[in-house]
Amino acid sequence: MGLRFTISRKIALGFGLFIVGVAVLTFIVNQTLKDGLNTNDQISLVYAPSQRALERLDNLVLRSYQLMTQWIHVQSRDDEKFKSELRQILASSLPESMELVDSLSQAWTEDDHLTKDRLFRNIQHLSLAFDQTMKTLPDFSSYTDPFASMSAEQALLPGEVIDAPFQKIREDLDTLLSHQEALLNEATAKENASYQSMFNVSYWLMTIMILVGVVIALVVIRSIVKPVNELKKTLLYLGKGIYPKTEFRVANDEIGDMTFAVNRLVDGLKKTREFSLQVGAGNFNAGYTPLSDEDELGGALLKMRDDLAENERLLEKKVEERTNEVVRQKEQIENQKERVTLLYKDLTDSINYAKRIQQTILPTDEQVHSLFDECFVLYRPKDIVSGDFYWFKASGKKSIFAAVDCTGHGVPGAFMSLVGHNVLNQVTKVFTRPSQILNNLNRMAMEVLDGDGTSQIKDGMDIALCTFDKETLELEFAGAYNPLWIVRKGELIEQKADKFSIGSFSHGENQFTNHVYQLEKGDCIYIFSDGYADQFGGPKNKKFMRKQFRELVVNSSPLHMEEQKNLLEQALVKWKGSQDQVDDILVIGIRV
User: What's the N-to-C CA distance of the chain in angstroms?
Assistant: First the structure.
């Protein structure tokens, strides 16, 4: 009897061919990947790093040549920034770059090694020429020596000690860069070709494997008998929740037993479906008979019906209770929202009215410019009302002006600003010397804030106050924490203030210091509060700081005062970005 080619053997043969195809494909892919990894290692570890290192070395040589040219032609001090940069390149950057190139050159060709050695010798010659030139022109005064200056310039001429090695270095670097780029392109092309070959072979192997799979599927389909196909189709339908419309004929064999069980299962599932629909519709009196005493699904369905009936009763009761509670809470929230809205409107209206009151104490632009032809006032309250205020007054041939920072900001600061403004007006009716004004301002402020000596108020004012005589150009200054800045021909003169505030001590305990300056035409005067320097922002969300503010003021001082104001506002907005303003901001600038 000959060997039968059964279904199991056909399947085994098909899967055997499939496994062989997978093995061949795996071998090809692994070999290609191995070759590709080797090529990729050459690209990532030799060619690409070598090209980057040579480009950096080329940039450093070119940059050092440019800096040396600047050293020779620009008379400058020894601590100039470009000289420090050249020393740093020669001392560390260039040796480090050469060391990196030397380490990468271990995998280079013999010709590239020779070119590299010649390149390093020329770099050493160039460095020695640079060093000699730096010694020839070591400081600012050495440029006045005609022999030293001519000797340094001679070195830059074509074919001389600097130009000759520099040109050779550039030629060697171009040669090495071109060769490394060619090797990189060659390796990349080789890698791409290897992967393309792998893709082509894989495509044909996969096509063959698909065809083998199709043949195996056809053999299996044609080898399954009709009853088994029918049972399979029925089970698949049942798995999707689809019931067969007709029962299958029950044969007198094992397949017949399977068919009988499937028919009984279909009938039971139909009854279960009808029962579930009745319960889902709310009919908790629907009847159901389990398939047997051991029917766990049937018992679970009956228990589910009883539990759902009880849960529906409890749920209806809870829904009614919670609906009543939600209605009550909604009414409470609406009432509270209405009260809060009214309170917020009243508060906002009051603060806006306070703003109008506060604005009446501030001098107008016309009043300020009537005292000083060229000046600006940068005033940015943090809130609607402000604790900072500016004050100008004419007293005979003198002009008195001040920048005042009251304790706090917003409404509390605004109240303090009204107190300060009124007291300043009273004091300056008698006194014009800044120290006398501040001493009496402290006395009267203490009387206002602590009239009977029992008040616990500790609020006060920081102030910078000046008196200016237009005829003699004499400026007097006294300050409580806030300083005076005078910018003359790009140089800043700072007069620090006394380190105690208005309202912080009893009259007679301390005395404010009076400072006198003889100004010149073109001098700029600046007084300010601490709000500008304390503003947070920038890339690291830090304070602007007094040092940066000082540099900004000095750099902008040659501009017209209105341009200075615009520049300060732009710098503040850029620094603040999306951050909130942290304090009231006041800056006053006057040009004599």
Answer: 126
Q: What is the dihedral of CA 187, 190, 191, 195, to 10 degrees?
A: 170
Nearest to 464 by CA among 443, 492, 489, 438: 438
How would residue 488 be classed by pLDDT, with cut points 50, 70 and 90? very high
Give me the residue label for tokens 């947070």. Answer: 536
- Residue pLDDT, tens place only, 216-253: 666 555 555 666 676 667 767 667 667 666 666 666 65
Query: For residue 83, what are its two tokens?
Result: 């000289």
Share of the chain above pLDDT 90, in %: 36
Q: Positive or negative CA dihedral for 317, 323, 329, 332?
A: negative
What distance in Å separates the CA atoms of residue 419 and residue 424, rounded to the nearest whole number? 9
Handedness of CA 264, 270, 275, 279 (dihedral sign): positive
pLDDT of 85 > 70? The answer is yes
Give the H/E segment covering residue 398: strand 398-406
pLDDT at 497 over 80: yes
Q: How many of the other CB atoms lie within 10 Å of CB of 66?
A: 12
What pLDDT was estimated at residue 23?
Answer: 77
pLDDT at 548: 95
pLDDT value of position 252:
63
482: buried, middle or exposed (CB in 10 Å: 19+, 13-18, 0-12)?
Answer: buried
Q: Which domains does the chain have, with CATH numbers?
A: 7-209 (1.20.120.1730), 234-279 (no CATH), 362-591 (3.60.40.10)
Q: Strand pairing partners for 469?
A: 398, 474
